[in-house]
Design a protein that fits this description.
The chain is an alpha+beta fold and about 375 residues long. Among the domains are: about 120 residues, DnaJ domain (Helix Hairpins, Orthogonal Bundle); about 40 residues, no CATH class; about 70 residues, HSP40/DNAj peptide-binding domain; about 25 residues. Helix 2 runs antiparallel to helix 3. It binds zinc ion (2 copies). The site of one zinc ion has 8 residues, from loops.
Length: about 375
């Protein structure tokens, strides 16, 4: 199937602003919400996914650039599995704004594919908060989650000694016939066998550990690799780390939603970092070499003389790493001139002398200006 042009999907012009794109997405998202749409649910889900993919790309400056330059081929590498999945969607916040918390239930079901998979273990979702430093370097985290895991005793088969036989309830066909009604109105319905869940294979004897279910509830430890540059709202998929399925069924996946704690020094905006840095009046007036902290050490900056408060310096490449790119964002430093809280007598005397000189200077400038 050829993919439609993202601009066409959202019905916006190639030159559309991020705001226009957001508005278009909002409108379409409401139109295709699986609970309120007039469309067939399956169609609505596909449309909703399509507009969300287009939004994911066009609302992001870098992805949009790649798309504008190389088309779909250019952005597919930006998605975890080489094509857009809900786990790539980074605008959950926008969905919350559009639908409110109450309207999110079916969307999250969709996002995590609970309805798309008829067999196999359930997908799971975990929230994980990390620090900005951890987001900067990347971090390995061990998370503890209670879940159904494959029974180790029977290796998930549910059978004692691992012996699986033809299901005695259905004779291995996976189907059972049930007669319903009575007399002339009797009819036979065919249903999947409940014992073997339609597989036709069942444990010879039930595993005593899991009573034939093939899975056991326990506390599991899962190591999650969080890549450097991860942004808040990023969803990491750990395939197969969700709940165990029944005998012969695949495990679900685990989705870890990353949140990054606010930092006292740096504010983050995508890959760029913003900070304020205090300097003394003397440093600002005379100029000075100052050391600015960065997330991986420090940077030397030469403050020119007569630097005003709120002047912003850009430290190129001192920001956050960019996920899936080799580059880094920038760090912006806003200079704040600090008035000393305590002065000794000598400092006071000097400042008084300075004030007198400054006043003379000002009155001279005043006369000079009047004369002009
Ligand atoms: Zn059966
Ligand atoms: Zn077992």
């Amino acid at each position: 199937m050829t993919k439609r042009d993202y601009y066409e999907v959202l019905g916006v012009a190639k030159t559309a602003s991020v705001d226009d794109i957001k508005k278009a997405y909002r409108k379409l998202a409401m139109q295709y919400h699986p609970d309120v749409t007039k469309e067939d649910r399956k169609v609505a889900e596909e449309k909703f996914k399509e507009v969300s993919e287009a939004y994911e790309v066009l609302a992001d400056e870098k992805k949009r650039q790649l798309y504008d330059q190389y088309g779909h081929a250019g952005v597919n590498s930006q998605f975890q599995d080489g094509s857009f999945n809900w786990s790539d969607f980074s605008h959950q916040g926008d969905l919350r704004d559009i639908f409110g918390d109450g309207g999110l239930g079916s969307i999250f079901d969709m996002l995590f594919g609970r309805q798309q998979r008829s067999s196999g273990g359930r997908d799971m979702r975990m929230d994980l908060q990390i620090t900005l430093e951890e987001a900067f370097r990347g971090v390995k985290r061990r998370i503890t989650v209670p879940k159904f895991d494959k029974c180790a005793k029977c290796n998930g088969t549910g059978a004692k000694d691992g012996k699986v036989v033809s299901c005695p309830d259905c004779g291995g066909t996976g189907q059972v016939r049930m007669a319903q009604g009575r007399g002339f109105s009797q009819f036979i319905s065919v249903m999947p066998c409940r014992r073997c869940r339609g597989t036709g294979r069942a444990p010879g004897n039930n595993c005593p550990e899991c009573e034939g279910r093939g899975k056991i509830q326990r506390t599991s430890h899962i190591d999650v690799d969080i890549p450097a540059g991860v942004e808040p709202g990023t969803r990491l998929r750990v395939p197969g780390a969700g709940e165990a399925g029944g005998p012969g069924e695949p495990n679900g996946d685990l989705y870890v939603a990353i949140d990054v704690k606010p930092h006292n020094t740096w504010k983050r905006e995508g890959a760029d970092l913003y900070m304020e840095f205090p300097v003394t009046f003397a440093q600002a007036a005379l100029g000075a070499d100052i050391e600015i902290p960065t997330l991986d050490g420090k940077a030397n900056v030469t403050l020119p003389s007569s630097t005003q408060s709120d002047t912003v310096f850009r430290l190129k490449g001192s920001g956050m790493p960019i996920l899936n790119y080799s580059g880094r964002g920038d760090q912006y430093v806003k200079v704040k001139i600090k008035v000393p809280e305590k002065l000794n007598q000598e400092q006071k005397d000097l400042l008084k002398r300075f004030a007198v000189l400054e006043a003379e200077d000002r009155s001279f400038m005043g006369k000079f200006k009047k004369r002009k």
